[in-house]
Amino acid sequence: MRTAILCAMLLLAACAVKKDPNNNAVTLGYDSEAAANGVKAVTHETSKIAGDITKDVKETGAKIQSKIGEQTADSNTAGNAADKTADKAPAKKH
């Protein structure tokens, strides 16, 4: 959907409409160089945006991995503390 809107905007930007009030005529011209320049600009911006998104995804993934590591370390520490407490408890006699 976005691509269709973008293509239409590029084509519109490349069009030159001239109205002659004397003859009541409209001339429509198409500048292929302007269209090519527009495509280059859009391609450049799109690649920059894609790079930013990739960077954000990598940073978020690293943060998630860090949090998972912290939680794993916390649960291991808690488990070790529980084991030590159980070791210190007096044994029940039957």
Explain this structure.
The chain has 94 residues and is α+β, with helices and mostly antiparallel strands. It has one domain. Helices cover 74% and strands 13% of the residues. It has two helices and two strands. The protein has helices spanning 2-14, 32-88; strands at 15-20, 25-30. Strands 1-2 form a two-stranded antiparallel sheet. A hairpin with a 4-residue loop joins β1 and β2 (25-30). α1 packs antiparallel against α2. The longest helix is centred in the middle third of the chain and has 57 residues, at 32-88.
- What Rg do the Cα atoms give? 33 Å
Supply the number of structural domains.
1
Q: Outline the low-pLDDT stretches.
A: none
Number of strands: 2
Taken in chain order, the helices and strands follow as HEEH
The fraction of residues assigned to DSSP E strands is 5-15%
Please state the overall shape, judged from the principal axes of the Cα atoms: rod-shaped
Amino- and carboxy-terminal Cα gap? 76 Å
Helix/strand class: alpha+beta
What does the main sheet amount to?
2 strands, antiparallel
Give the neighbour order of strands across the main sheet: 1-2
What is the residue-mean pLDDT, rounded to a whole number? 76
Count of alpha and pi helical runs: 2
Helix content: over 70%
List the helices and strands and how they pair.
Elements: H1 2-14, E1 15-20, E2 25-30, H2 32-88
Antiparallel strand pairs: 1-2
TL;DR?
The protein has 94 residues and is α+β, with helices and mostly antiparallel strands. It has one domain (2-76).
